Amino acid sequence: MQIQVVKSKIHRVTVTGADLNYIGSITIDEALMEAANMIEGEKVSIVNINNGERLETYIIKGNRNSGDITLNGPAARKVQKGDIIIIISYGTLDFEEAKSFKPAIVFPNEKDNSLT
């Protein structure tokens, strides 16, 4: 049997922008992506701490160390600049393998989204 488990999580990061006129996705600072073991194009779930909204989209790589967390396209209607969100990606593993798997979890500084 295979199950889905949390593969990666960026916990409590601040939204820096919402661009309704973009084609869709979430732009994430490249340093945060690497720390969380996420890649461009990967499907992610977004949980908005401020309003309870949940959505799925895919990642676009942002500039390294920019702190950029921008929701693009229709997702921009679900967040506001300054909202705190959690970004989660999942992986599919064999049930026995999943028992010992450890996800990459990142806790950035909420003020500037840095890793320090």
TrEMBL record:
Family from the record: Belongs to the PanD family.
Keyword S-adenosyl-L-methionine: no
Positions bearing Pyruvic acid (Ser): 25
A Pfam family of this chain: Asp_decarbox
GO molecular function: aspartate 1-decarboxylase activity
Compartment(s) where it occurs, according to its Swiss-Prot or TrEMBL record: Cytoplasm
InterPro entries reported for this sequence: Asp_de-COase-like_dom_sf, Asp_decarbox
Annotated cofactor note: Binds 1 pyruvoyl group covalently per subunit.
Keyword vocabulary terms for this entry: Autocatalytic cleavage, Cytoplasm, Decarboxylase, Lyase, Pantothenate biosynthesis, Pyruvate, Schiff base, Zymogen
Catalytic activity entry: L-aspartate + H(+) = beta-alanine + CO2
Binding-site list for substrate: 57, 73-75
Cofactor: pyruvate
Record has Lyase as a keyword: yes
Post-translational modification: Is synthesized initially as an inactive proenzyme, which is activated by self-cleavage at a specific serine bond to produce a beta-subunit with a hydroxyl group at its C-terminus and an alpha-subunit with a pyruvoyl group at its N-terminus.
Organism: Flavobacterium zepuense
EC numbers on record: 4.1.1.11
Name of protein: Aspartate 1-decarboxylase
GO terms under biological process: alanine biosynthetic process; pantothenate biosynthetic process
